[in-house]
Amino acid sequence: MNILIVYAHPEPTSLTRQMVDVTTEMLSAAGHTVVHSDLYGMKWKAVYDADDFPERDNPERLSFIAESGHAYASGQQTPDVLAEQQKLLAADAVVLQFPLWWYGVPAILKGWIERVYAFGFAYGYQNGSNQFRFGEGILKGKRALVNVLAGGPAADYGPRGINGPIEQLLFPLTHGALFYPGMEVLPTHAVYSTVHVSTAEEVEAIKAVWRKRLAGLFTDAPIPFRLQNGGDFPNHHTMADHVAPGQTGLAAHFADPADM
Ligand SMILES: Cc1cc2nc3c(=O)[nH]c(=O)nc-3n(C[C@H](O)[C@H](O)[C@H](O)COP(=O)(O)O)c2cc1C
């Protein structure tokens, strides 16, 4: 199988990068082909701006969606974006590894999503509408696994934790960026209290748990997000009344509340 690891940490000795090394070693040893997108190492351009569209369809006014669709359809995307799209298409599974920065992904990873997820590719797929999304799309059939490292303790990210549940905080990534274009998203693997990790034994314990998660990359059950076209959203916008009755907000999106 082909594995793409997308990671966002510039420091090779960081815990994040040590966990990336575990991913690479373990999946390579298992016979998989591992490809990296080392966002800092690549000096990934994080800001989505006019430089992304050297051949504008409309030089008068920058409409990101229109120019994105034009560049994608006419083969005029920048080479860095095209290369990442090809890596995604070639992957059977995508592993994302990053520290939690202000309750979300580091800016460089957000910029990777904004720029790589072109109109016609990740959204507006096939016919320019929203017909194929949330479980269907260009990345359907691929698996995604998020590994996030948080400085705060697990209690802060529990069901009633002060920061909110990690699976809800990362909903824009798991549901919005990974499930949207069709991927099956595994439950997030979070490492907590990273700021207090100091001994080699603690690091080894963290790596051992991660190895167990990686062993289930192609077998673990994904988060049961609701398909757009599976009947739960009859008009493709709002959940039917009989689905998750009485529940609102993000919790209603998880078919099994235990996955929140
Ligand atoms: C800019 C920045 C924002 C951060 N935001 C959070 C946060 O929202 N929640 C949290 O628990 N830790 C936060 N932290 C702590 C990081 O998650 C922590 O430093 C990281 O997990 C350590 O892993 P590393 O050794 O791989 O960098 C933040 C750190 C930085 C530098």
UniProtKB/TrEMBL annotation:
Keywords: Oxidoreductase. Pfam families: Flavodoxin_2. This is NAD(P)H dehydrogenase. The keyword Metal-binding does not apply. One of its GO terms (cellular component) is cytosol. The keyword Zinc does not apply. It comes from the Bacteria. Signal peptide: none annotated. GO terms for molecular function: NAD(P)H dehydrogenase (quinone) activity. Belongs to the NAD(P)H dehydrogenase (quinone) family. The lineage of its organism: Bacteria, Pseudomonadati, Pseudomonadota, Alphaproteobacteria, Acetobacterales.
